[in-house]
Amino acid sequence: MSTTSRITAAAVAAAVAMTTLAACGSQGGGSADAKTVTLVSHDSFRASKSVLAAFEKESGYKVKVLGGGDAGKAVNQAILSKDNPQGDVFFGIDNILLSRGLKAGLFSPYRAKGLDSVPAALQLDKDRHRVTPLDYGDICVNYDRGYFAKHKIAPPKTFDDLVKPQYKGLLVTENSATSSPGLAFQLATIAAYGNDGWQGYWKKLKANGVEVVDGWEQAYNERFSGSAAGKDKGDKPLVVSYASSPPAEVLGKKPAPKEAPTGVATGTCFRQIEFGGLLKGAKNEKGGKALLDFLLSRTFQEDVPLQMFVNPARKDATVPEVFTKYGATIDKPTTLAPETITQNREQWIKQWSSLVLK
Predict the structure, then answer these.
(1) Which residues, at least 6 apart from 352, have a Cβ–Cβ distance to it below 8 Å?
(2) Distance (Å, rounded) from C-alpha 284 to C-alpha 335?
(3) What share of the chain is helix, strand, coil (3-state, %, to 5)?
(4) Is the pTM of this model over 0.90?
């Protein structure tokens, strides 16, 4: 999720007809009038047409969605235009980028309706309510079940497993400097081994033949042997992807298989949380608050899984069976405080690049 190069970008887009309400607007244009509310987001934002239409009918506001590239680019643009914001609500800043947005003063405090139904662990700004948690997902190593069954090798479960001899040359990951999943995987290893131990771990991973590519599309669809989209192309049975990747592999298949062809190494995951917030200086503050309430409503939250292939933030939202049957539940994901990430991110990326890419 974003910061996000999501599974929806390829496999899901081919399997499900999804509608994004896109609109053109001038830089810093904000809402066109009092009956228009503008949502600024990354390009991975998806919502069913009927769901957004329900909000428009109920509220009387017309929704305009402005896509701003990947999440990092969208957040940077929002910061650059904060004195004349492009819209009323921002969707898609995550815990990796959150402190940057909060430090820049992007958001006005607002406690959205329904927040009591969101677990406290997702509410990273619960004292000030500058942002509202709207979804979460886990970035984890995925494995090709067929490969490991054929070679009679148990698939890895943990970070420690990945550096064992039987997994030599089997893993492909994304570049931390160019990919959100790649950076999240690096952060996961930092959370697991600490600031003093993560570089030693990556030395072992490099010695064990890890392959690094620029982004998720290349890693999953070109190098991973378990990707339906990249069938017979990849020779890497291990890839850094999402805990929600297995449901995407079976979506629309008839008859439905007993299990997904790919699995998740549940001890390798990093929790990614996405937030929405009322942009400071929003031209339609009232409409922005109404839209934030809607984004946290069960109507929208129950639309999230099969549109953006992440989990709804509300604990009372119903999740589709394909998600629960084929997806992996991550009980103890690694995580780092947003402030810690902000303070160290650039240095960590430079250290990783020097260590792994040279």
Answers:
(1) 176, 177, 186, 202
(2) 35
(3) 40, 20, 40
(4) no
Of 45-54, 61-70, 138-147, minimum mean pLDDT range: 61-70
Helix (H) or strand (E) holding 240: strand 238-242
Query: Could you tell me the two tokens for 303?
Result: 């639309």
| Average pLDDT value for residue range 198-226 | 95
**Strands 132-144, 262-279: parallel, antiparallel or unpaired by DSSP?**
antiparallel
**CB burial string 269-290: b at 16+ within 10 A, e below:** bbbbbbbbbbbbbbbbbebbbb
Cα–Cα distance for residue pair 297/61, rounded to 1 Å: 16
Evaluate if residue 318 carries a pLDDT over 80.
yes
Q: Is the pLDDT of residue 80 over 70?
A: yes
Peptide bond connecting 255 to the previous residue in cis, omega within 30 degrees of 0: yes
Say if residue 1's pLDDT is above 90.
no
Do 93 and 75 meet the contact criterion of CB atoms below 8 Å apart? Answer: yes
Q: What angle do CA 158, 160, 165 make, to 5 degrees?
A: 115
Cα gap 300→311, rounded to integer Å: 12
Give CA separation, 259 vs 24, 140, 144, 251, 266, in Å. Answer: 42, 18, 12, 12, 16
Q: What is the DSSP string of 80-116?
A: HTTTS-SSSEEEEEETTTHHHHHHTT-EE----TTGG
> Are β-strands 132-144 and 311-312 bridged in parallel, bridged antiparallel, or unpaired?
antiparallel
Q: Which residues neighbour 277 within 8 Å (Cβ) at sequence distance 6 or greater?
A: 89, 90, 93, 101, 106, 107, 108, 110, 130, 131, 132, 292
pLDDT at 346: 92
DSSP letter assigned to residue 142: E
